[in-house]
Amino acid sequence: MKISTAIILLAFVFGAMSCDTRTEAEKIVDKAIEAHGGENYKTAKIEFDFRDIHYSIFKNSERFDYSREISDSLGLIKDVLNNSGFQRTINGVEIDTLSEEWIGKYSRSVNSVAYFAYLPFGLNDQAVIKENLGKTVIKGEEYHLIKVTFEKSGGGEDYDDEFLYWFGTDDYLMDYLAYSYHTDGGGVRFREVSSVKEVGGIRFQNYINLKPEDESVSVEKIQDLYLSGDLEVLSEIILENLKVDVLKE
Questions:
Q1: Residue 140: what are its φ and ψ, rounded to 5°?
Q2: In the list 25, 115, 140, 163, which could disulfide-bond 148, CB 3.0-4.6 Å?
């Protein structure tokens, strides 16, 4: 009787293991998301100021709603990007004369800030393709190196951008990221975490933003350039006045 029970338990364990069809890259990203906030992301409305612009962000697997508010000589400009599309209002009046070009530019700008603020949560979006490039070492610390690309269908206008993420092998925290992009002339960027703040159970990170002299270089070479000191500081990415409200599901 005891032997039969043991066999049944073993069969259950091996059966559960065999049902996990996730790739190694997906497992690493799942652990990273958990380390940075996990389930807290799904019910959180996040607000912060970035370069004198106020942002409000909500995102889960079904919907997203990003907005930003800018005060200038025209008054209060509010941009909203969500599942329905993009809308700009000035002093509460909708602007319906924007060209497709400017709608695209404003949408990319809002989406970019939201994307980086939410990392690594967005790395499980449907259009994301994840590849495990193995382990690497930066400044004596070992990391899982994950490459991210995007499906053309559902990957947005910037689907051909490429990203690299360094997740600690011990804590699965994202200490570095890099990406290549093609809009506005294209380029390559490398970001190093400069400071961290936890609000509402979510880890928010500020970065030093660096770039190589030759921005046509492959993003896969960026780590070597960083370690050899061949990247220059371009800017700082700092989120201020962070606030997290928990929304009811």
A1: 80, -5
A2: 163
